Amino acid sequence: MDPISQWIAGWKIPVGRWGREFFDFLTTNFALFFDTLAAWLSIVLNGLVAGLLWLPPIVVVLLIAALAFVLKRSWTLSIGVVLGFLFIINQGLWKETVETLVLVVAATACSMAIGVPIGIWAAHNERVYRILQPILDLMQTLPTFVYLIPVLILFGLGIAPGLIVTVIFASPAPIRLTYLGITSVPKPLLEAGESFGATKRQLLWKVELPSALPTIMAGLTQCIMLSLSMVVIAALIGANGLGRPVVRALNSVNIPLGLEAGLAIVILAIILDRMARIGTEPRK
Q1: Cα–chain-centroid distance for residue 39?
Q2: pTM of this structure
Q3: Per-residue pLDDT for 279 more than 50?
């Protein structure tokens, strides 16, 4: 190392120490909050998993296929849902699939519940969006493993930290796409609503949201895909599901197990993606 680089390195900014002190402060003063939140989330998620596993697998499959038909009016999709889940059952991965399904649906619901209102707020307040933009850029460019460190410190191991890290990772997508959808509403449409005396709330619910719905629903599908991409990562901090056999297969170089679990994740991703495309394409 040259002298200039040595001099620069000698004045190292103690970012790591500051970070450790910050998390020490949180765990010392807010441990009860984090433990309570993790325990509550674990109870809810494990209860949903137990409820789905209590039902016969074929009943759950038929219910999901029926929901797919109600959403899309497509017998082809419903039959594909049944065949996909029957393959997963045949591979002996039903329990892991249910755990992943609960985690992904819960994370997607939380991400949309957080992202859509924030996206609407940012669309109506340019200052808010300017503040959010670098934060969203940071959240979307940080390596996924970096999220595990603070979540693991604050919430420990289990399905609850898996949900939290997935929500953090997936939330920027609905925020950005909701902002894009609301700001892309044609001005003549807004002016027409205002000319009829619509209030800001009426404009939002009757003009902006219906016009932006396809873009918002694209955010939903992005949320689902991002949540599924965190399945394997979340398994490293104790979240059960299809990520666990993938990690096991990597550790033991078990190619058959890795292929089986990988195909199950792909099938689940395709099913959820097709079912979630409400408002983005015409029903068949």
Answers
A1: 20
A2: 0.85
A3: no
